Amino acid sequence: MVVVVVAALISLGLGILLASTIMRKTIIRKSQHILREAASEAEVLKKEKILQAREKFLQLKAEHEVFVAEKNEKVNQAESRLKQKESSFSQKMEELQRKQSEVNTIRENLNTQLEILNKKQAELEKSHKQQLEQLETISGLSAQEAKLQLVEVLKVEAQSDAQSFIKEIMEEAKLSAGREARKLVVQALQRTATEVAIENSVSVFPIESDEIKGRIIGREGRNIRALEAATGVEIIVDDTPEAIILSGFDPVRREVARLSLHKLVTDGRIHPARIEEVVAKTQKQIDQEIIEIGKRTTIDLGIHGMHHELVRLVGKMKYRSSYGQNLLQHSREVANLAATMAAELGLNPKIAKRAALLHDIGKVPDNEPELPHAILGMKLAEKYKEKPEVCNAIGSHHDEVEMESLISPIIQICDAISGARPGARREVVESYIKRLNDLEELALSYPGVVKTYAIQAGRELRVIVGSEKITDAEAEQISQDLSKKIQTEMTYPGQIKITVIRETRAVAYAK
Q1: How many CB atoms lie within 10 A of CB 506?
Q2: Fewest CB within 10 A of the end CB: N or C in the chain?
Q3: pTM greater than 0.70
Q4: Per-residue model confidence as pLDDT tens digits over 307-354
Q5: CA–CA separation, 443 vs 452, rounded Å?
């Protein structure tokens, strides 16, 4: 039994030993195979790396050759430019040397000529001295005495020539000044467009039916009395169909009455207490609207920094009129005209526009002092710290004070232009025609006058006289006498130009 076990163990040991030997050989064979594959792959990889390194080397070599070629090209170009500059510099040096040589030659020539000139000058002075001595001997006068006599003669001739020259310049300046002035006025008028506004002393309030008239009058007339007392406007309720007349010299009051009536009629509640309440609210509304109008006007004209009280008075001008011309429209027109003229004359257009807007501010004061409106406007402007030239232009536009700056006559001229242009102020047609007829008849009353024509809306009177009856001096005298007679006997806006025409005509007929 033991033998069998021993034999089994020996057999088992031999089997294990044999299996391990076989396994070791197998592992060795696999290891050798792996080593051979690894060596083969390493050889392939080595060849690939060598090829890549060779390609990289070739690429770098090619890039280096290109870089070297570019550098060489730049070096060659720089050398070429340097050679060109050297050549140009050499040429300039040669040119400079040549010019220097020419300058030296010219200098030598000039020195030679200068020596000759000095010699001739000395000879000329000697000859001149000899001639003077001979002249003094012949004339019996010294050179100084002869010079004084010559100066006196030349002085008299120069004075005569100067007077003649000054007279020509003055005449030319007058013609040029008149032409430039007309051109300036025409340009200013062409650039300024203003609406023609006509104001009346009454306003018409339309109503839907005549039944509302009874409600406005009220029981025993209490409503209309309350409305007249609150607004200060006379309310005329007559037979005019579907209309009520509001009469009053103050346009602000008429506007308050018109708006109050509109609110009362629209609301339907018309009684004294309600009337007073509506009128008070409307008055506040009008006051605010006046301020807004003043602000809008200053903004439209580009005027800034004006005192708020002056702005309020500017807005109040909308409800004032002068000879039927709306005061605010007139002031805006004068401002635009003045700015245009000031710019053409090289003056400050902003100051001119400011003075022009405020020139009639004295017509809309809150109280009514006994002062001309120009003086009152100047005092208001001074009170609210306006510039001295603005204040002077306001006060002098009707010659109440002396003009102190060039802005003042511009404001006066533009005010006259705005007031005298056709359509600016209301004038009854009959009185307008009568004024023109009176002008023509007044001129016809002079002896020797053949025809008269009132033109330019009565601002110019042309008088044609007979050349055989009137001389040039008499024609001039007629124009002077006629202007004085018109000033004393007639009333007219602006000014009237009197032109007396005298001409001689020679007529013949070829048959």
Answers
A1: 4
A2: C
A3: no
A4: 888 888 888 888 777 666 788 888 888 888 888 888 888 888 899 899
A5: 7
